[in-house]
Known about the structure:
The structure is a homodimer. The first copy, chain A, has 2 domains: 5-48, Homeodomain-like (Arc Repressor Mutant, subunit A, Orthogonal Bundle), CATH 1.10.10; 59-176. By secondary structure, chain A is mainly alpha-helical. The radius of gyration of chain A is 21 Å and the shape is globular. The mean pLDDT of chain A is 94. Helix content of chain A is 71%, strand content 0%. In chain A, helix 1 (5-22) packs across helix 6 and helix 8 packs across helix 9. Chains A and B meet through helix 4, helix 5, helix 6, helix 7 and helix 8 of A and helix 4, helix 5, helix 6, helix 7 and helix 8 of B. Chain B binds a DNA duplex through residues 1-3, 5, 8, 29-31, 39-43, 45-47, 50-52.
Amino acid sequence: MARNSSGFRREILETASRLFAATSFKATSLQDIAREVGCSKAALLYHFDGKDAILTEMLTPAVEALAELDTRLAGLAGDDAVLPAVEGFVDLMLRFRSAVKIIYDDIPEMLRHPALAGVPDKTDRLIDAFAGRSADPEARVAALMVLGSVPVVGASPVPLPDEELRAVLVRCALRTLDRDPTRS
Amino acid sequence: MARNSSGFRREILETASRLFAATSFKATSLQDIAREVGCSKAALLYHFDGKDAILTEMLTPAVEALAELDTRLAGLAGDDAVLPAVEGFVDLMLRFRSAVKIIYDDIPEMLRHPALAGVPDKTDRLIDAFAGRSADPEARVAALMVLGSVPVVGASPVPLPDEELRAVLVRCALRTLDRDPTRS
DNA sequence: CACAAAACTGTCCGATCGGTCAGCCCCTGA
DNA sequence: TCAGGGGCTGACCGATCGGACAGTTTTGTG
């Protein structure tokens, strides 16, 4: 064998990235990567200092881009920061989509657990309801955002009593879905 | 020892729930739970059929409530489904917050990885920018929602070219933040 | 062609995981 | 009093993980 070294490194990174995104970082073993690449586990450890080093090298560009966005926003005050922050964040996410998947695809893996069988089906129908049974792509994306954002808030510590938090969440979610919350 | 059996079961569930939420299901071993509860690992497996059974018993109420919401929404068509869906989902999430944490707290665990050092700080500042540097709780919650929702969309397969997806995401995010996207 | 460096392999290792099992303790009721 | 069963333990098991290492093949170079 003895392929081109830097090309081999890249091949390892791409394969590992695919596997990490498909399953998850923790659930993907060095054996899995080696099998997919077509080399021995020891070969991986020859090119990289360890499993963590593979992940680090894979995520570094995204982390650096986030740091760049951070410094760019630091100079903007108040309302001026909102639009650049949103656009910058969305661009970042789209540009490093595979990296994002690696971080977030622990959730689908968790949903594969027998205890949660049938949940994905129900969340699909929930998206349908959020979108008002519409097939419009924008409505579907907004619905997906609501499905994701509400639990994220729930998993985070929020200094707000449940009743107020409930009202705020409903209001924000309706705005996301382009439904005016200001009505009876 | 020989404690009250059902009380002991409840104690195990509560401790396990706390540990699962604090770290993650996979990263929490039976040893960890046993140490925290103050019994042997074998004692856990005497009361439960296995690690999965503990998780299942913990999540079952939430899964059932989700199924209930699902059937309740099934009869509603089009726009009539939106508000009940949003309110039902928010209520569900608030009611089973610990269960939600268990599913979602794989992400914070991932963010603890050395490769992602410093990322939480930057996302905190990103939330600040999303909220327009405001301390208003509603603005902070909306910002948190945006931070969560955008990557969730990125990690999901969306049948939309990147450019359109970008525009949709920015628009929806601005609506979530209560910023009117309809302007130059 | 010779030889050193690079590339790679098979094998082994310690740690940790979920789970099993024989047996001990102790309360209960006949 | 003593059999018996529920509650529980410590020791152990096989599987799997990331990683170490000595040794072998391949490659580049004088």
